[in-house]
Design goal:
The protein has 434 residues and is α/β, with parallel strands linked by helices. The chain contains 17 helices and 5 strands. The radius of gyration is 22 Å and the shape is globular.
Length: 434
């Protein structure tokens, strides 16, 4: 009997280190690769913000197009459509007589809910949804504790994981993909198809011209590690504000699964053997581990990360005129040059440095006393590298209602500006046109 497996792509838009795709080629005679542009991802949130801004939407479209080309190179293709997965995936599964559906499991509540809806709808047709785990550096089965017992302090988590866990090798890439004859693949939607009216353009001042897709993600890693040898000094430069290579800028590709964190890890290990092993090479792995941590925390605490009080039980104070203050913060019109420059960079490019993110978040919560969840929702709209666990986990951390043992984390904006922009070049660049 011919076994036909539907591969439902989500935030795993790559060929390399993709267990779902590899396992489907091994277990199935024929594959139906599918990507759904879920209209809920492009609508409005309960906060009045857009779920996905035009800059990230363009990056997603580019990433899906690149995946389609990669699948075609292997003899396959990709069905792309606009629709809710719980409606479209079962419909396709029934239409083509699919034996089983494979997908990567997510950790955020909305994404989990969609998986459960898909699973329920498929089961009505006696079709199984098989779950895989493939978004983290460390597999949860290799952690030295169950998810429910993961420490709520990162340092405690890190030390035990580094001492007792190992990163498994990357999965090999499939050699060939077989798809049904006359597969109706559809077309990749434009931004207009997804409901965006504005013309898309990235400001020329952007630190990097981000382009979506596995091809571009691997190219960026090659350039950063090997062409520019920038990993050598990552720890010293990572808090920079100007230029492409002060930090890796991998986050947008990792967020959509165009670049596997394990792929990055093993490339670092290769770099350590061939170039140098130092604090900088360790520090990039350290940052990947933070990313893992927030995903595991989401698995542990779930919806609590979306509550004003987080999982600490007490929300920060809020100003009476916080709506007005929030609008000024969003537009980069607070009157504080360093904060305004960072917000203007975000609005124009979809990117902001890690140093900038910590400062503008701290300023919104600690100085303006605005509801931190509004800031997190605005970042969700604007960031090109948005992923739920990283974004909401970091905001809760800054607000003091998440994973931070220090109760009153507070950034001195003037001091930070002096430390990281002593000549004022960054502030001048982003405030010059306003």
């Amino acid at each position: 009997m011919n076994k036909l497996i539907l591969v439902w792509f989500r935030n795993d838009l790559r060929i390399h280190d993709n267990e779902v795709l590899l396992e489907a080629t091994r277990k199935g005679d024929t594959l139906i690769p599918v990507y759904c542009f879920d209209p809920r991802h492009y609508g409005t949130t309960n906060y009045g913000t857009r779920k996905t801004g035009s800059i990230r939407a363009q990056f997603i479209v580019e990433s899906v197009a690149d995946l389609k080309r990669s699948l075609q190179d292997l003899g396959g293709d990709l069905i792309t459509l606009i629709g809710k997965p719980e409606e479209e995936v079962p419909k396709l599964a029934k239409q083509y007589g699919v034996t089983e559906v494979y997908h990567h499991r997510e950790v955020a509540p909305e994404e989990i809910d969609v998986s459960e809806r898909v699973e329920t709808a498929l089961w009505e047709h006696q079709i199984n949804l098989k779950h895989f785990i493939g978004h983290t550096l460390y597999h949860k089965e290799h952690l030295p504790f169950p998810i429910k017992d993961i420490p709520d302090v990162f340092t405690n988590f890190r030390k035990k994981v580094e001492r007792e866990s190992t990163v498994r090798p990357c999965f090999s890439e499939p050699i060939k993909i077989c798809i049904p004859e006359n597969l109706s693949v559809g077309v990749i939607p434009s931004l207009a198809d997804l409901g965006y009216e504005e013309q898309f353009s990235i400001d020329s001042r952007a630190v990097l011209q981000f382009k979506g897709g596995e091809t571009e993600g691997l190219k960026r890693m090659q350039d950063y590690f090997w062409e520019h040898d920038a990993l050598r000094t990552y720890k010293e430069t990572r808090n920079g504000l100007l230029g492409a290579n002060f930090s890796s800028k991998f986050s947008a590709w990792i967020a959509l699964g165009c670049l596997s964190p394990r792929k990055v890890y093993w490339e670092i290990k290769k770099y350590e053997k061939e170039r140098v092993a130092n604090e900088s090479t360790y520090w990039l792995i350290f940052e990947l581990l933070w990313r893992d941590y927030f995903r595991f925390m989401f698995k542990k605490h779930g919806n609590k990360f979306f509550l004003k009080a987080g999982f600490k039980g007490q929300a920060p104070a809020e100003a009476a005129n916080q709506k007005q203050l929030f609008e000024r913060w969003k537009q980069g019109e607070t009157g504080v040059p360093f904060i305004d420059a960072n917000m203007r960079e975000l609005n124009a490019t979809g990117f902001m440095s890690n140093r900038g993110r910590q400062n503008v978040a701290s300023y919104l919560v600690k100085e303006l006393h605005v509801n931190w969840t509004w800031g997190a929702a605005y970042f969700e709209e604007q960031l090109i590298d948005y992923c739920p666990a990283n974004n909401w986990g970091n905001w809760a951390y800054i607000a003091g209602v998440g994973n931070d043992p220090r109760e009153d984390r507070h950034f001195n904006t003037a001091k930070q500006a002096q430390m990281y922009d002593p000549a004022g070049k960054y502030v001048q660049l982003w405030n010059a046109a306003y």
